[in-house]
Amino acid sequence: MLWYIGRRMLQVIPVFLGATLLLYAMVFLRPGDPVAALGGDRGLPPAAEAAIREAYHLNEPFIVQYLYYLKGIFTFDMGVTFTGRPVVDVITQALPVTFQLAMMAIIFETVFGIGFGLFAGLRKGKFFDSAVLVWSLLLIALPTFVIGFVLQIVVGVQLGWLPVTAGRDPDFVSLLMPAIVLATVSFAYILRLTRTSVVENVTADFVRTARAKGLPRDKVVSRHVLRNSLIPVVTFVGADLGNLMAGSIVTEGIFNINGVGGTLYNAIIRGENVTVVSLTTVLVVIYIVANLLVDLLYAVLDPRIRYA
Amino acid sequence: MTPRKRLVGFGAFALAASLVLTACGGGGGGEEPPAEGESTGIVTVGNGEPQNPLIPARTNEVFGGLVVTNIFAGLSYYDAEGAVHNDVAESIESDDNQTWNVTLQDGWEFSDGTPVTAKSFVDAWNWAAYGPNGANLASFFSSIEGFTEAQGEYEIDDEGNVKVITEPETETMSGLEVVSDTEFTIKLSQPESDFPIRLGYAAYYPLPEVFFDDPEAFGEAPIGNGPYVLDSWEHDSAITLLPNESYQGDRAAQNGGIELIAYTDEDAQYNDLLSGNLDIVQNVPASAFATFEEELGERAVNQPAATLGAMSVPEWVEEFSGEAGLMRRKALSMAINREEITETLYAGARTPARDFTSPVIDGWSDSIPGNEVLDYNPEEAKALWDEAEQMEPWGDKVLEIHTNTDSDHQEWVEAACNGYENDLGIQCEMVGYPTFDEFLNERDKGKGGKIDGLFRAGWAADYPSLQNYLGPIYTKAALAGSNDSKYVNEEFEAKLTEAAGAATTEEANALYNEAQEILFQDMPGIPLWYYNTTAGYSELVENAQFGWDDAPLLYQVTKTE
């Protein structure tokens, strides 16, 4: 088991190198010249442009720029933004908020998604099941920004129940609405996934056996039906955690959360390569770890799966 | 989500207020019962993360500009109408418009207790002008004698790489001379009558000695002499300004402080304003243009500002050059229905242009001869176009309008295109670029112009002078800068030089408007509309006013707790 985890963690190294190189190349190949945009319609004086190009090694060929960047990483210096702020600061500021938001969203979507899905699956074809299916379709069809805007205006501005935006020190209450918005689509997916697997498993042989040997209904549902239905759900949630950590540009924008999404968006618009590449790389690592956790969870859910 | 690209013009950030001091100020409130409260509340303002260190000569965008104008005081400041008043200066005088004698008031201090002297100004200006310091606003010192020697000379090749042609020879400009602690002289390389008008702009602010020890650290925690001091800068989140007790100019803070909150989305700001979480919104989102005046009532602001939207018509496009080209340029201007576009697309948040400047600038006129080409006149436009067609065929070429689409430009370009197709009977299409720098790249690459069509242009004044709309855009000197249609006309240059040497501002303005007549004859650009300040404020604040430059006059806002 430990060996397995160790081997998986070692995979981070090539993935890290590959990801930074690819990302750097992509950002580099993007048309346009970020330095030119810094000057607005007036343009920068050539001396100022020269100073920036010098500081960010922008006159060097691509591979040299990339090596400078790598050198920075290994000396724990990811470089500075155009404002002169260390990129590490930017990342350590953006990640915790997004992490909190992502966790809240994950809890919402799994608790409610699995709950409703289980309920609907056990009552297949009944009114509740049909109603929930229609609702989940509706949620999937609605773009996030529509849900976000409507909730913000109705619940925030008109009713005044929850804060309109998250503000400078987001707490649980101010993140509630954005977390719900962020969770809606995945909630609908989890619900449908759970429902489908529950419907399948309810008629499976092992469930019939469990019933036949006289287990109470709630034990049958929790130990046999639910546990076996969760494998596809866990896969989905694992991938979703990665998505949520990458931040939602739309949701973070609507609720003015200074998280990963907004930071990334602004960095892309400004052409701040160091920020884009560093932040995305951190996300890649998080993605790898999240997937490792998912793989380990499989073994817990299904004892037949073992990692030696 | 489309955060408006706040780099569309350029910094234009002076702050000030008419000196009709507000009745609600803390000072006069002695007789009022305590329940009324003094104005000690912290005013919250929607803003964004500054994009440069907070060093005045490096601050060329509006988010940082709002901070800098409030924590620094220059020789002079602009009031809401753009009129110039002395701030630190006692007097700025010249006999020949070329050598300016500046006298400072006594007793000014930076917030670290060091005095504001003539040297504070001269050193700051020299730092900004010295090439290797890379100050974004260095060009504001270009009219001072010795600027080129301090800046050096550079060339930008087709790849965008900068090459040094001449290294800077000195670190100081020969035109600046400290006479005493409170006096210095500025010698310009040629007479410029409107030079003092510029001195209220952020580029000309003084710097304390501590700045020169470590400019980087200073940019993170600047020390100024303005109405406020910077209390904290939480990046991407909020900047807090507190009143500066030692400030002794006219812009003294009338509130308990300012909190500039960073937003990435204008809709979020606006919703915060509606729910009372934010006091001042500087830009109402486009989605609320049609409704904000109703929703906010008296608290809505919708007034022209110093920003002009335009299209450049490059003469390097063969069909736009020569006599036939001139007719086409005029036809293209006359075939745009400015009234309809500003009303239907922007719900009146833009004002149709009448000239090449802006109505908030002193000397503006809506009756410059030749400006009838700005009236919508489809018949005349079609007639001109057809006449040009006789001389030199356009054929079935598709007219391209190039623009960046990360801001709200797409709508009007499409509307203009539709107009051209209907009125002129030609094919027209928008060529969009997802980001501003991609657009710039296409526009400026090789400086010879790759764009084969019209392109978007915009200009926000840095200081309230007609010159600021003409000199930096249509002169030979600006060919390497913002003269992006590469327009050159000797007669026009002569007019500007004459205006620069004029004895009075009135005289100068008359000459600038004569220079505009030449522009209307040549049409190197097509003025479209003036951007309005579309803003709003909450019920919790009073005396919120927006200046000529689109920025709120924060120091005069009052808020009772």
Automatic annotation (TrEMBL), chain A:
The keyword Transmembrane helix applies. GO terms for biological process: transmembrane transport. It is found in: Cell membrane. It comes from the Bacteria. It is a multi-pass membrane protein. One of its GO terms (cellular component) is plasma membrane. Its main location: membrane. The chain crosses the membrane at residues 12-29, 99-120, 132-160, 172-191, 276-301. PANTHER family: DIPEPTIDE TRANSPORT SYSTEM PERMEASE PROTEIN DPPB-RELATED, DIPEPTIDE-TRANSPORT INTEGRAL MEMBRANE PROTEIN ABC TRANSPORTER DPPB-RELATED. This is ABC transporter permease. It comes from Promicromonospora soli.
TrEMBL record, chain B:
One of its GO terms (molecular function) is peptide transmembrane transporter activity. It holds the Pfam family SBP_bac_5. Residues 1-23 form the signal peptide. Keywords: Signal. Residues 84-477 form the Solute-binding protein family domain. The keyword Signal applies. This is ABC transporter substrate-binding protein. It comes from Promicromonospora soli. The lineage of its organism: Bacteria, Bacillati, Actinomycetota, Actinomycetes, Micrococcales.
